[in-house]
Amino acid sequence: MIIRIDFNSDEAIYIQLRNQIIIGIANSQIREGDNLPSVRDLAEDIGINMHTVNKAYTILKQEGYVKLDRRKGAVISIDADKYKAIMEMTNEMKVILAKAICRNISCKEAHEIVDKIFMEYESDNGL
């Protein structure tokens, strides 16, 4: 999996890293049971501070995407609590859709965007 960090972005590096890993899971570049690089290795590869990688891994653990094991490091392990995931998504979508409404994006346009993104992930996964 290739991780792309935009050092000129306003978005924090640990958030970019977290998002890249979640996208990698969604498009099957990394799968359940796969090990992520060690904090030190990933920090060196990207050229960032180890604490930044550690923060991203900690958030991924809190969100149910990885388990942290002292011997194996960070391992992809999806927490399959669908109800919790739907509630979290609902809360996040409320803000995203509020922003869309403020920018005059219609419900139809929002649905088209969601459908397009789902189709991209489904084609990446061979579905």
UniProtKB/TrEMBL annotation:
<dbReference type="GO" id="GO:0003677">
    <property type="term" value="F:DNA binding"/>
</dbReference>
<dbReference type="InterPro" id="IPR036388">
    <property type="entry name" value="WH-like_DNA-bd_sf"/>
</dbReference>
<keyword id="KW-0238">DNA-binding</keyword>
<dbReference type="GO" id="GO:0003700">
    <property type="term" value="F:DNA-binding transcription factor activity"/>
</dbReference>
<protein>
    <submittedName>
        <fullName>DNA-binding transcriptional regulator YhcF (GntR family)</fullName>
    </submittedName>
</protein>
<keyword id="KW-0805">Transcription regulation</keyword>
<dbReference type="InterPro" id="IPR036390">
    <property type="entry name" value="WH_DNA-bd_sf"/>
</dbReference>
<feature type="domain" description="HTH gntR-type">
    <location>
        <begin position="11"/>
        <end position="79"/>
    </location>
</feature>
<dbReference type="Pfam" id="PF00392">
    <property type="entry name" value="GntR"/>
</dbReference>
<dbReference type="InterPro" id="IPR000524">
    <property type="entry name" value="Tscrpt_reg_HTH_GntR"/>
</dbReference>
<keyword id="KW-0804">Transcription</keyword>
